[in-house]
Structures are given as structure tokens and as C-alpha cells.
Amino acid sequence: MKESAKKVIRLILGEYSIYRIYAFSGPVGPDWAPIRPGFRFARLDEPTIANSTDTLIVDQRWWHGDDADAFGCFEESRPVAACFYWHGDRYRARGFWPLEASEAKLVQIVTVPDRRGLGLATDLIRYSAHEMLGERFHTLYARIWHSNTPSINAFRRAGWRHVATVTEVNPLRLSGPVRMTFRRRI
Known about the structure:
Blueprint: H1 2-13, E1 16-24, E2 40-43, H2 46-50, H3 55-58, E3 68-75, E4 78-86, H4 88-92, E5 103-111, H5 120-133, E6 139-145, H6 149-157, E7 161-169, E8 178-183
Parallel strand pairs: 5-6
Antiparallel strand pairs: 1-6, 1-7, 2-3, 3-4, 4-5, 7-8
């Protein structure tokens, strides 16, 4: 019954998406420290991504480039997690959430499978937010699929707040999706 109900809903509403929007505007104090010892955090450059021994990290290479900032979590010299922020023209071409000039969006975060569950994503989100806000940005955003509990928990633990939910549906497969944005009071 559950699958048939989903089919009927999808037939009526068409394809759908439900995303939670999280935001961070600080503060990240100077006493920031990672939760897990034994790992270091730093900017991530294209050669390091390309030369990684982990396919998952190498596959993230296309997120890097103009108007992108990349950060990594390293175990010795091995990048074990990566995240990428887009802003400016790079983000505008694919923008889902409107950004001002002093805002950026965390568009991708991954952790290699053998290091998941250690809190590294949370630490990387904290570290990268600290670095981004210390430069030229005043607010950061992230878009998370509504049921991606590990990502939601990582962003919450890193101090980000849920500011909106965006739902798109395409009823009866009309010309384009209908977008509904529900902003939360903060």
C-alpha cells in the first residue's frame, strides 16, 4: 500500500524535491578546535584532490575552480574529507538559494567511507566556516535533502541553524516546477 500511495502522489505532484536550508553567520571564536585529535584541517588545492589515493576525493575535483573555496580534513597527508563553497559567478550559474556578494554556499561535503562516523564532517564544517567568515563572507548557506539525517546532524553540531525549507513540485507534469519556500523565524 505504501508504494502504491507514493506512485499516486508522484503521478499527481510529479517529481518533487524538499530541501532544508541551513545558515551560519558566526561567531566562530579563536578558540575553535577540532573534536577529534589526530586530524588537521587546511585549504584543499586541485593537485591534492587529483593525486588522492581515494577515488571519492578525486571525484570531487570538478567542484573546485573559479569562485570556489575548498577545504580538507587530513590524516597525515591523506585527505579524508572535503568540502566546497561556491560564490559569485560560479554559484550564480546554478544558484538554488539567492546569495548576496558577501555570502557563499557550501555545495558539497564528503568523507571517505573508512573515516565516517568520527565527527570529521562536523569538524570540517566548523573549520571551513571559521575560515570563510574570517575572510570576505558574512553568511554561509547549505542545502540539505530533507531526510539526510547525517548531514543535518553534522550541520547542527557545527552550529548552523535551519532557516528555511524549500519544496518544489511539478503538478501533473506542467511546464515547470512550482517552488514553495517556508522561512523559519530566527
